Hints:
- By secondary structure, the protein is of the alpha+beta class.
- It has 16 helices and eleven strands.
Amino acid sequence: MAQPGRNEPCPCGSGRKYKACCLDKEEAARRASGSASRPPLTGHQSELFGELADFAHREFGAFTKKGLELFPRLDDFKNESGVPFPFDERQEGEWLIRMSYGILFDYPVSENGEAIAARFLRRRSASLRDSERAWLQQMLQAPVTPYEILEVQRDVGLRARNLWSGEEMFINERLATRDVSVWDVLAGRVIRDGARLVLEGGAYLFPPEQKQVLEEAMAKHRLEIEATTAGSSRDPAFLMLFSAVIHSIWIDYALDRMERPAPRVVTSEGDDIEFTTIVFEASNAAAVEAALGQRPDFAAESQQGTFSWIEPMDEGSFRTLGRVVIRGARLTLDTQSKPRADRARELLLSLAPGSLVVTSTRSMSAAVALAKEKKRKKPAKPVRSASPGIPPAVADRLRHEFMDQHYRKWIDIPVPALNGETPQNASRTLAGRTALVNLLKSAENMEGRASQEFRRPYDFEWIWRELRLPRS
Length: 472
């Protein structure tokens, strides 16, 4: 019989959801038979984690069920239509790791705050290998901690700042360097592996703008703990309890991203982009082509019978509004919005009265066009050069020269995000400096995320120095 979904009625007939009834018991049975998914540890650690998980289900089944409530999955929540949010196999694996470590190493099962892993270590210490004992002891002292990323060394590791203590450190985490950009916040457990610091037990990745949310939650958590217990916010137990808070913030962030409406894509006139094509039948195509050639707002292209519909702008420049192609007795107009199409249709019909008849009109939204394009195209291979024949190193140098010219002008140009102030002027006030720091962090983050293996991210260091801003 197929296994029911987590939110479906439990097959035992209790009337409760499967996740709130028999799911834990059945997963425990699968673990006992060796078929359950476990965090991807290696060697002795994998064996040890299996023993620890079995110990938790046998000794603390009720606590682990309670702990699951602290680490919900995305598909435990529904959208406005009542449909659970999507949750794929990769996300399930990540959730399993975070949840498992959170319950085993953080969730207290006694009044003195002892975690399941601590109880396991106390009872089984004599039968454990030295390496297993050391790993458990380290994990019990390694809470989920937010780290602000200061530098990414691709395929090597990350230089990061602990947001609790302010301490800077280098974390040897090769795989994370492919997903993380400077100023991201990575929340995870850091332990020692010989002389190196490494991430263990899964992690949460947040964009730079979530740093303030995390810091506010940290301050609130500190006050709550110090007000309700005699302990200090420096105690490991205090920090351990923060893993559930981190998970809750990540869930809110993930749900917000999925519920957030797609940005509205508009033309320069402010109209929704809708790729619109109008087809005309021409009884006198030559007369229509001649009339188009006489108009300043239709520029003939190199190919016979093809015109760009243009509109003058400031300083002798122009923008393209659409395109007209005449082939035989057929004239096709392509534009990016319905209002433009309506304007062009009336304009074309007036050029040679009685020579054109509309035979069809079709429109497609930007979202639909993008979806169709993705479906049509095969996955592209990584581009190794900005242009055919240009070596990657040369393309990279040209790109950096262009960005350098842009930013050296940018610091003296009014910026809307700075309330119309130039970066130089904004740097002279406290509010302006705060806005500038956030703006530069966002730019550096996007640049780091867009950079590929063959492309160095642009170095913003000189801007921080020029504007005398604290790079923190």
